[in-house]
């Protein structure tokens, strides 16, 4: 599956590069996942492949770890109730009666099983044709102890909120219990903290959780959303 995906991504990248020059388009891919879910590792692997293939382009991938699988014997160290609540917000917008993993949400506009490589490639191709509504500029990111302060500006159409997500580039974890016991999992662009702001504020502080290590590679991914959680712009900056 991954070999075929690499071929598809290679084809898609060339067309994406041309589209990006013309309209500054973007793709935000939010994966809702869990180390306690046996069907999630293929989706985690797919997200990592996309991250590496598009590392120099405007494809932004985020891995949100939910907490409702923790009851099965393995507590995902990256999971929070807040990320589960965020997934429920999407379920309400999509008129879904339930939430599931692995779920991949693209630009807040559609969702599908996170391990479906053909749908992922198709989504990248389709959304690369759309023009961004908001241009985000991230400035003066400074870390002091466990706090990151950052300023931002947003140009373009009105938006409902802006998300600033602190992400850890990758982690390797040996799972001792639960559905994935005895497996070694790699997670990419793990959301460590998510802060929501509004158009009336132009600076924000993000707290770094205690599980983040000094050696971790950190990035802030910011994206604006309208009142239906549809993504209208995105940017990122390394810390």
From TrEMBL:
Entry superkingdom: Bacteria
Signal peptide as annotated in the record: 1-19
Keyword Signal: yes
Keywords noted in UniProt: Signal
Pfam families per the UniProt record, alphabetical: DUF1223
Protein name: DUF1223 domain-containing protein
Organism: Aquimarina litoralis
């Amino acid at each position: 599956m991954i070999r075929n995906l690499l071929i598809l991504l290679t084809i898609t990248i060339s067309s994406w590069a041309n589209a990006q020059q013309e309209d500054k388009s973007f793709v935000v891919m939010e994966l809702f996942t869990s180390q306690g879910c046996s069907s999630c590792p293929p989706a985690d692997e797919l997200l990592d492949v996309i991250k590496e293939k598009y590392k120099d382009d405007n494809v932004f991938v985020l891995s949100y770890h939910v907490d409702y699988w923790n009851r099965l014997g393995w507590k995902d160290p990256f999971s929070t109730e807040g990320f589960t609540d965020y997934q429920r917000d999407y379920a309400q917008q999509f008129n879904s009666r339930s939430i599931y993993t692995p779920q991949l949400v693209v630009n807040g506009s559609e969702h599908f099983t996170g391990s479906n490589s053909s749908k992922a490639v198709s989504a990248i191709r389709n959304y690369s044709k759309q023009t961004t509504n908001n241009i985000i500029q991230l400035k003066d990111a400074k870390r002091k102890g466990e706090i990151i302060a950052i300023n931002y500006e947003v140009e373009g159409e009105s938006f409902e909120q802006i998300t600033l997500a602190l992400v850890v580039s990758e982690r390797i974890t040996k799972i001792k219990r639960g559905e994935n016991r005895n497996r070694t999992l790699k997670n990419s662009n793990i959301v460590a903290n998510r802060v929501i702001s509004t158009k009336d504020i132009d600076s924000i502080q993000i707290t770094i959780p205690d599980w983040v290590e000094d050696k971790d590679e950190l990035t802030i991914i910011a994206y604006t959303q309208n009142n239906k959680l549809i993504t209208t712009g995105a940017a990122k900056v390394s810390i």
